[in-house]
């Protein structure tokens, strides 16, 4: 791997300039700005990196696909990323223009610097660097870059389903998001899924006077209060029948990982604005990432202004999200949720506002051990190995639709300000990402019998 | 009483002109417009009616007090009314200017026409008419007119407490509000009281991401849902300890009255916008006026806009009113409510936003029978005799603070549009009110031994 290091030192300026070129090209999916031009530039760039690359139509913006196959039967890794970025608003808040990459204090400031152009370029440049250092890649490599991650990846799963053969792989490897705030790398093995619903209860056709009609007109706020009371106990236990049926018991390996995760209670308490937080580290991470939730995001009914208004509200609405863990299925949970509502409050309407499947790649797989070792070597630091994220990403496309392990290793700095003004990536994070991908590819070579 | 009728016919134009003069004088308590001038005009007018009248200071706008005592030991009736009016906004919606009384189709249009200037003038002109017809009043008469009814009568109870001797009486008689929509007069014997509270639950100091922090940060919306669930069962029964302790059992006379009240289920269902209303008349009136409520006026927490937002809200607020019935005491109920919150959710804050005591004058009193007969005679129609209103008025000032029976007989037409643009009173309603007061005074004479 000394060759890799030498090449990275030698080509530092060249690689940065190539990233700057990509960052100058806007590709705002929600606003349909610059998408085609950006995708075409990347295809050409991938070809220059030694990949057989092309645009592929999807039901939305085109997918970019590239591959380099040394032996169809050898170990294959699929690298996933996205070329679209968030809108740059508010423009006033940027110190330098969002599509004019600018270096300040060792960081590259531009929309997409961290999310995800800096990270996908690290992966593509790693392929080029590895090829130039070793003459060939140690495994088959496929790359899939989509243009709709920032709008919720609406067509990714369908595309992957239709192209199972093309995308056949042994592992999916993603670099997105920030590293740990201690500066340590993260190896992330899954995410919680999500189900978002809205409940609406109706009483009379309009608000009524609470004195003149009190006790006569049903109150939809009470209807939802009583319905919600049947869904979750005051102890936090979720009472929807069958809700926990498919919750996967954490493995011993996962339980061990939770114990090793860095945790500073006071720091977490400050971050969430809840000083009396009273959880130890393993409990915190277990509840956060391996247990499902039933959360009220909003409850709105009747008068909410200053002082008093004496009404019986005509309607009440509750928005809820459920964070789901492997192997809960959002469609199944939605059916159980609707059944519960039908049994307890049949007149309450349920709307489905979104869903995402949970994912979890077992921590005790060989491939996880190998990737983790490679990351440790690349950074010279112990990685934070996390069985699951509390939040939700479309990671189940890989673990469920393709049915393969998926590992996420973020390359951006913790304060990359993704989705915000002055988004940035540290130059060291960008170069470190190239190095890390090289180490991961190299280590995976042992599954293809090419290295190790 | 033929003399009274003759005088009313003779003085029709004169009496209307006197009402118009009062209606031209704005007296908007919330805006402090014209209050003093209005009060002074009324004092002079009361003197011209044969009353010993004066302004008396209160902690707010002055009270107007007048009396005509024929014998300190004789039966006394205290007539209550108010000289303040609602603001006239929105001005655009008035057909004729609010302070320029205008007759159209037999109605007088002006702010205060029905609420309460037309009705208090009917009472004052009845005193004048009776005096001119009979030479003396049959009972002692006291008149108390306040200038703060439209702002919730904040100083009435204190004033009455401080002037118990001056205001000593055997009956309080009020004309305010509308007659029955069938055109029949109403004899109203009480009101429900009210207690208004606001509950606030707090979780973290700010909204947190429901994925990144879900299961870690407590959700105040859930706190209130679970707390509310301990306060009222899904069957509507209120579970706050001791809540029903002081609820007065309806007397047989009251139960009989409920059966006689006019009730058209379909019509009520249309009025409240609830087509599936399924109550018979006596049940409707019992629940509406003789049973207490625990009502959610508003529940607000977290996101209420379109679509989904994935947060754990930082706060949740519920506004509730309780309609109380005799002999529940709002202070006592507030203590019980706070005790309940302390037991079940000690961190939830309770704010007291207002209270009014319930009142009920027993239906089987002689004085109720006599007034009802007088009203029947005056209108030539069977009065609607109602043990209690569903709504709340400061009627307990009389039944509790003074400890005397109180009877409310509204004179305005059902569609008086009080508090709305184009407020009005029918000329017949105004003149009918004068006649009715004369009949009531005359009938009460039997308690003073002067008539009957």
TrEMBL record, chains A, B:
One of its GO terms (biological process) is proteolysis. InterPro entries: Cyt/Met_Dipeptidase, Peptidase_M20, Peptidase_M20_dimer. Gene3D superfamilies: 3.30.70.360, Zn peptidases (3.40.630.10). Keywords: Hydrolase, Metal-binding, Protease. The keyword Hydrolase applies. The keyword Protease applies. Residues 190-347 form the Peptidase M20 dimerisation domain. It comes from the Bacteria. GO terms for molecular function: metal ion binding; peptidase activity. PANTHER family: BETA-ALA-HIS DIPEPTIDASE, DI- AND TRIPEPTIDASE DUG2-RELATED. This is Acetylornithine deacetylase/Succinyl-diaminopimelate desuccinylase. It comes from Alicyclobacillus macrosporangiidus.
């Amino acid at each position: 791997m000394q060759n890799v290091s030498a090449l990275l030192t030698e080509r530092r300026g060249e690689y940065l300039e190539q990233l700057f070129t990509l960052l100058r090209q806007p590709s705002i999916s929600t606003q349909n700005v610059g998408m085609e031009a950006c995708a075409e530039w990347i295809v050409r760039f991938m070809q220059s990196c030694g990949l057989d690359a092309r645009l592929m139509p999807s039901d939305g913006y085109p997918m970019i696909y590239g591959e380099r196959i040394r032996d169809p039967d050898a170990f294959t890794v699929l690298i996933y990323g996205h070329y679209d970025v968030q809108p740059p608003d508010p423009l006033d808040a940027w110190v330098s223009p969002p599509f004019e990459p600018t270096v300040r204090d060792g960081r590259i400031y531009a929309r997409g610097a961290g999310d995800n152009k800096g990270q996908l370029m690290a992966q593509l440049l790693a392929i080029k660097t590895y090829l130039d250092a070793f003459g060939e890649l140690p495994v088959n490599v496929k790359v899939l870059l989509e243009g709709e991650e920032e709008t919720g990846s609406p067509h990714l799963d369908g595309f992957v389903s239709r192209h199972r053969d093309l995308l056949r792989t042994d592992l999916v490897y993603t670099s997105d998001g920030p590293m740990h705030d201690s500066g340590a790398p993260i190896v992330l093995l899954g995410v919680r899924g999500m189900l978002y619903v809205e409940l609406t209860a109706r009483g009379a056709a309009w608000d009524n006077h609470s004195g003149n009609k009190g006790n006569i007109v049903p109150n939809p706020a009470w209807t939802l209060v009583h319905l919600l009371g049947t869904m979750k106990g005051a102890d936090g236990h979720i009472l929807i029948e069958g809700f926990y049926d498919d919750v996967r018991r954490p493995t011993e390996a996962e339980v061990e990982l939770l114990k090793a995760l860095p945790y500073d209670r006071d720091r977490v308490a400050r971050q969430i604005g809840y000083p009396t937080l009273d959880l130890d580290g393993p409990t915190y991470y277990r509840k956060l990432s391996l247990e499902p939730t039933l959360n009220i995001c909003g409850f709105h009914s009747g008068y909410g202004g200053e002082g008093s208004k004496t009404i019986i509200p005509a309607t009440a609405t509750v928005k809820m999200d459920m964070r789901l863990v492997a192997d809960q299925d959002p469609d199944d949970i939605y059916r159980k949720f609707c059944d519960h509502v039908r049994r307890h409050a049949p007149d309450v309407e349920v709307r489905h506002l979104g869903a995402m499947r949970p994912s979890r790649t077992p921590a005790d797989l060989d491939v996880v051990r190998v990737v983790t070792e490679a990351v440790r070597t690349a950074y010279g630091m112990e990685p934070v190995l996390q069985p699951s994220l509390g939040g939700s990403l479309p990671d189940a496309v890989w673990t469920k639709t393709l049915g393969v392990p998926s590992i996420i290793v973020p390359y951006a700095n913790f304060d990359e300000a993704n989705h915000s003004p002055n988004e940035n990536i540290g130059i060291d994070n960008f170069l470190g990402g190239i190095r890390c991908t090289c180490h991961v590819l190299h280590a995976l070579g042992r599954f293809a019998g090419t290295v190790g």
